[in-house]
Design a protein that fits this description.
The complex is a heterodimer of chains A (201) and B (469). Chain A is an alpha/beta fold and 201 residues long. Chain A is 33% helix and 14% strand. Chain A is built from nine helices and eight strands. In chain A, a hairpin with a 4-residue loop joins strand 6 and strand 7. Chain A is globular and about 60 Å long. The longest helix of chain B has 17 residues. Chain B has a five-stranded parallel sheet with strand order 5-4-3-6-7, with helices on both faces. In chain B, 61% of the residues are buried. Chain B folds into three domains: 156 residues, Aconitase, domain 3 (2-Layer Sandwich); 120 residues, Aconitase, Domain 2; 179 residues, Aconitase, domain 3, CATH 3.30.499. In chain B, helix 3 links the parallel strand 4 and strand 5. Chain B starts with a helix and ends with a helix. The chains are: A alpha/beta (201), B alpha/beta (469). Chains A and B meet through helix 3, helix 4, helix 6, helix 7 and helix 8 of A and strand 1, helix 2, helix 3, helix 5 and strand 8 of B. Bound molecules: iron/sulfur cluster. The site of iron/sulfur cluster has 13 residues of chain B, from helix 12.
Chain lengths: 201, 469
């Protein structure tokens, strides 16, 4: 299984402010009634973007100015709550290819990396400063460089961090662990053989 | 230097170091349900991979099952497709499925312990963040995403980064009317909803030593609300007694061998921790949330904090919370009118929860105009509650007595809040929209506090309503 090597992401940005944005907000539970992830993209942030009768509400993602943005900017503890991969899947299928936030919930972070969607941590002031620049020039693309840990927009650059292990797997095109895990099957069997509760079954 | 339970289980289950520095960890027990597994089976089919150890995966159906009309086909065709897909996947792969007809169906985190599948010294994974519940048995239990469900099905392992371990000690005796739910809400309030990022939580101290197995589950359940993916209690006699005689627990001679092994996993007295915090049980009171995350919590007799009283980083979320909850800073939370009382979820829908509430609810009626529903955590709990006469106590009090499932904990089945209804809830999440209505409002609390709110029609102090002291 060969995956693309992701060392940079380029695209336009959109800022969705707010801290502790949980997975129920990213994808309301009622849209998780599905047996495939196809089609989840249109329900990303649904309740924030549409009212009860399905009419669009003012929301950055509904704003034509930011249409086609592929980089999401967010606040602190983004993606907290559930382990549902539906959340990063919905964002990915909506078109996002990277997220910049002040911090991420752990399971959300891991799930996103597994999809090849880098989640980088930035200082809160920098995020807001970057968001202001985007607001002023929504058509200008951002460039995220995973190797140097920098995000730039035109001639302005901010630091954006990714933990080493995540950086490595993305850059090496090994962000989906399954191939590595399958290579270890013999070792899996010998480890399992030493654990009585696994053998008993 | 001694080792923690976490270190010992991690070492026993380490398969190898992966080239990227992560650990390939063996997952001894895998639990699945209908929401996060179908896509994983789909991925396996695409990769043409079989399930490696089908006898180590156990399934049940919980999130989408209706709690009233349970005959198939379900009226919701999507829900119906999900249960059928799970049934088919289990059949094809040889996975044990606790289906509705088995009489053993229920919320996955209630079924695992009840069946004796959840055991000390093991690793457990499930595509659900409340998998931390199983840590109450001295297991390391991880909530995982669907791609990892696929990884575990195909390889019985996953790639993980070892977290740090924080010991959270609570000592002393809880006052009457204060429960395990209050303990964990208090811990989250103190450490914050992301205080546990990168940590596994070890809950210890005399309060936990005296807790029943079910109380320990309530606490471990909400580790994730505090940002910790894993939470556990060291296994002891309480744990071993709970497991004895359960269908999947080792029987007879094997049981004694297993107990000796289980004991060996407990943290050593001189174990080294990355962090230690301590609380006094006597300082904890009945706790309720006022906001839109579980850390926004106060004692029942406190006032809703104003922004100035909060650390600056919490202020913007607080503003959002006042607006969503339609509550004002400086107001007491007590006396807030409720519309719905929900007793259920993997946090608090076990038999001991229902017993404790029934004890005080007997002979009382819920307030006219309040919708009260009791959703037992499993068919096992439901049957036990019927035979003990608890179900009748709830029915006589005016509660609807339902079939087992997640129900209004997240509103993926027909049980949902309507409009901006306010719900006194024994569940674990008060996020906006969590209970099925985007404008619905959730106030988290212990089961007895839910009953007190149901009886009075407003958020109340259960100690006053039921005369506890
Ligand atoms: S009861 Fe609620 S928290 Fe528990 S598994 Fe079901 S939906 Fe998740």
């Amino acid at each position: 299984m060969s995956l693309p090597k992701i060392s940079q992401v380029a695209g336009r940005g959109v800022y969705v402010p707010g801290d502790d944005v949980d997975t129920d907000r990213v994808i309301p539970a009622r849209y998780m009634k599905c047996i495939t992830f196809d089609g989840l993209g249109e329900y990303a942030f649904y309740d924030e973007r549409f009212d009860a009768s399905g009419r669009p509400k003012p929301h950055p993602i509904n704003d034509p100015k930011y249409a086609g943005a592929t980089i999401l900017l967010a606040g602190r503890n983004f993606g907290c709550g559930s382990s549902r991969e539906h959340a990063p899947q919905a964002l990915y299928r909506h078109g996002f290819r990277a997220i910049l936030a002040e911090s991420f919930a752990e399971i959300f972070f891991g799930n996103s990396i597994t999809l090849g969607m880098p989640c980088l941590v930035m200082d809160g002031h920098d995020i807001r400063a970057l968001a202001a620049l985007i607001e002023g020039a929504p058509q200008t693309g951002l460039n995220i460089n995973l190797l140097s840990g920098r995000v730039s927009l035109a001639d302005v650059t901010f630091p954006a961090e990714l933990p080493d292990h995540a950086k490595e797997v993305l850059i090496d095109g090994k962000w989906d662990a399954i191939a590595d895990l399958l290579e270890g099957l013999d070792a899996v069997k010998s480890t399992a053989a030493k654990l009585p509760y696994i053998q008993a079954a | 230097m001694g080792k923690t339970l976490f270190d010992k289980i991690w070492a026993a289950h380490t398969v190898r170091q992966l080239p990227n520095g992560m650990t390939q960890l063996l997952i001894g027990t895998h639990l699945i349900h209908e929401v996060t597994s179908p896509q994983a089976f789909g991925m396996l089919r695409d990769l043409k991979l079989p399930v490696l150890y089908p006898q180590r995966t156990f399934a049940t159906v919980d999130h989408i099952v209706p709690t009233d009309e349970r005959e198939e086909p379900f009226s919701d065709s999507l829900a119906d497709a999900m249960i059928k897909e799970l049934r088919k996947n289990c059949d094809e792969s040889g996975i044990k499925f606790f289906d509705i007809a088995s009489g053993k169906q229920g919320i996955v985190h209630i079924v695992g312990p009840e069946q004796g599948i959840t055991q000390p010294g093991t690793t457990i994974a499930c595509g659900d963040s409340h998998t931390s519940t199983h840590g109450a048995f001295g297991a390391i239990a991880f909530g995982i995403g669907t791609s990892q469900v696929r990884d575990v099905l195909a390889t019985q392992t996953m790639a993980l980064q070892k977290p740090k371990v924080r010991r959270i000690e609570v000592n002393g005796k809880l006052a009457p009317g204060v429960y395990a739910k209050d303990v964990i809400l208090h811990i989250i309030r103190k450490l914050g909803v992301n205080g546990g990022l990168g940590y596994a939580y070890e809950y210890a101290g005399s309060t936990f030593d005296h807790f029943t197995q079910e109380e320990r589950m309530t606490v471990c359940n909400m580790s994730i609300e505090g940002g910790a993916r894993v939470g556990y209690v060291n296994p002891d006699q309480t744990t071993f007694d709970y497991l004895r005689g359960r269908p999947y627990a080792p029987a007879q001679a094997d049981y004694d061998v297993a107990v000796a092994r289980w004991k060996s996993f407990a943290s050593d007295p001189d174990a080294k921790y990355d962090d230690i915090v301590k609380y006094d049980a006597a300082d904890i009171g009945p706790t309720v949330t006022w906001g839109i995350n579980p850390g926004q919590a106060i004692f029942i007799d406190e006032k809703i904090p104003s922004p100035e009283e909060l650390p600056e980083k919490d202020r913007s979320t607080a503003e959002e919370a006042y607006a969503h909850m339609k509550l004002r800073p400086g107001q007491p939370i007590k006396g807030t009118k409720i519309d719905v009382a929900f007793l259920g979820s993997c946090t608090n829908a076990r038999i001991s929860d229902l017993q404790e509430v029934a004890r005080y609810l007997q002979g009382k009626k819920i307030k006219v105009g309040v919708k009260g529903i009791v959703v037992p955590g499993s068919q096992g709990v439901a049957a036990l509650a019927e035979s003990m006469g608890l179900a009748d106590i709830f029915r006589n009090a005016g509660f609807e007595w339902r079939g087992a499932g997640c129900s209004m904990c997240l509103g993926m089945n027909p049980d949902k809040l309507i409009g901006d209804q306010l719900c006194a809830s024994s569940s674990n999440r008060n996020f906006k929209g969590r209970q099925g209505s985007p404008t619905g409002r959730t106030v988290l609390m212990s089961p007895l506090m839910v009953a007190a709110a149901a009886v009075t029609g407003q958020i109340s102090d259960a100690r006053e309503v039921f005369g506890l002291s």
